[in-house]
């Protein structure tokens, strides 16, 4: 049995460290009854219906994850490319974890309560502080960027579930 462990580890390592290389392929897998797309140590799920930010938080948690926290340019680039490749366009905005519900202008993750370490705002964002309290991704030109928006507006949502289990590569 132990002789299989090195083979299993060798098969998983390229996926587990995929965030370090933006050219590494992603893969899809089903967890429960939800189809996730895995990149590195995160599994992403795109909500197919539009909802407000609060409902999006609960939906992601019901699916065993959280609203996505984008932690780097590499991760944002992957998400942008994936969304565009799957025909999401300027008509599709996606709720993510960030919000400034506690303190105007300081954006925290709803997942762990800590300030976000990475932000990629669209031009002239954030704006309307005190009114627009939640972050969503929206298409700014040819790429997705972050924008603060009213939490009760409706958008699609991007969930994440951490874990580096192997899955079948696309």
From TrEMBL:
Stored PROSITE patterns: C_TYPE_LECTIN_2
Name of the protein described by the UniProt record: CG11211
SUPFAM superfamilies reported for this sequence: C-type lectin-like
UniProt-listed InterPro entries: C-type_lectin-like, C-type_lectin-like/link_sf, C-type_lectin/snaclec_domain, CTDL_fold
Annotated signal sequence range: 1-18
Origin superkingdom: Eukaryota
Keywords attached to this entry: Signal
Cross-referenced CDD domains: CLECT
UniProt source species: Drosophila busckii (Fruit fly)
Annotated Pfam families: Lectin_C
Domain C-type lectin intervals: 39-160
């Amino acid at each position: 049995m132990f002789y299989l462990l090195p083979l299993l580890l060798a098969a998983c390592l390229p996926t587990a460290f995929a965030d370090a290389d933006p050219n590494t392929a992603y893969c899809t897998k089903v967890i429960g009854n939800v189809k996730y797309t895995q990149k590195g140590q995160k599994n992403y799920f795109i909500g197919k219906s539009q909802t407000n930010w609060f409902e999006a938080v609960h939906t992601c948690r019901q699916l065993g994850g959280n609203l996505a926290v984008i932690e780097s340019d590499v991760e944002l680039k992957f998400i942008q490319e994936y969304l565009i490749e799957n025909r999401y366009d300027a008509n599709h905005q996606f709720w993510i974890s960030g919000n400034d519900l506690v303190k105007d202008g300081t954006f925290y993750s709803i997942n762990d309560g800590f300030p976000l370490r990475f932000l990629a705002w669209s031009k002239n964002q954030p704006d309307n502080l005190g009114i627009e309290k939640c972050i969503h991704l929206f298409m700014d030109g040819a790429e997705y960027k972050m924008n603060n928006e009213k939490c009760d507006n409706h958008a699609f949502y991007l969930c994440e579930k951490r874990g580096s289990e192997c899955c079948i590569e696309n």
